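#struct-help
A.M.: can someone run this one for me? Single chain, 125 residues.
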Amino acid sequence: MTGQRRAILKALEGDTTHPTADMVYHKVKKEIPHISLGTVYRNLKMLSESGHILEIEIADGPNRYDYRTEQHYHFHCDHCGFVYDVNLAYQQALNDELTQAGFLVSRHDIQFHGQCPKCQGQLSH
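D.P.: on it. Structure tokens below:
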């Protein structure tokens, strides 16, 4: 674990905003001024592939990163772009149903879309 990776993990730890690579870069740059954006991208990819963090793919925007690695779901606000953790129980039964249909399922990701409570309040005024 390099110092750069430790700094990236530290930047993500406790951050529930699910930051983009650019957001992580700006946070880590305060601690390691000479770090490049490319280095942050490469390390985020490595940390994601090794299971230290989750990479959340966003169809219409930059991917987000999550320190929480246990199976959980996300809500993506189509208005402000914020990504929230959703506190619903992981539905293992979905994996089991696909396994019974002949698929080899390791996990599944569900991402809900719509408007967060904050944006609903802003749009109704």
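A.M.: thanks! The two ends are 49 Å apart (CA to CA).
D.P.: also worth noting: The first helix runs from residue 3 to 12.
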